[in-house]
Amino acid sequence: MTNRLNSFFQHDAALAWEPTEPGVKRKIMAYGPDLMVVRVAFDAGAVGKAHSHPHRQASYVESGVFDVTIDGRTERLIAGDTFFVPADLVHGVVAVEAGQLVDSFTPMREEFL
């Protein structure tokens, strides 16, 4: 991926999708050292497996229906809903219906680059 740390504007059509897990792909929308925004698309039934990381994460359900589990608690979220994951908590999602999440991370996820 091209280093975009010095670019202010990103155009969705110019950004490539990257497969991550079966039925899941992501597109890095914008980033800097302290913040990263990533769009993640899920096919119906796709799973974002349970994991943890030291980054804080705020996510917006752009479309679809998701069962989101954070620290053992699961809730069903629909378009327009949000969730927040503190650092190091185990979390994951299941796409009940196909949809997209817009994830924000602080600091940025260097391993995504």
UniProtKB/TrEMBL annotation:
Q: According to the lineage, what is the superkingdom?
A: Bacteria
Q: Which SUPFAM superfamilies match?
A: RmlC-like cupins (SSF51182)
- Fetch the CDD domains from UniProt: cupin_KdgF (cd02238)
Q: Locate the Cupin type-2 domain: which residues? A: 39-97
Q: Which Gene3D superfamilies match?
A: Jelly Rolls (2.60.120.10)
Which PANTHER family does this chain map to?
H2HPP ISOMERASE (PTHR40112)
Q: What is this protein called?
A: Cupin type-2 domain-containing protein
Origin species:
Bosea psychrotolerans
Organism taxonomic ancestry: Bacteria, Pseudomonadati, Pseudomonadota, Alphaproteobacteria, Hyphomicrobiales
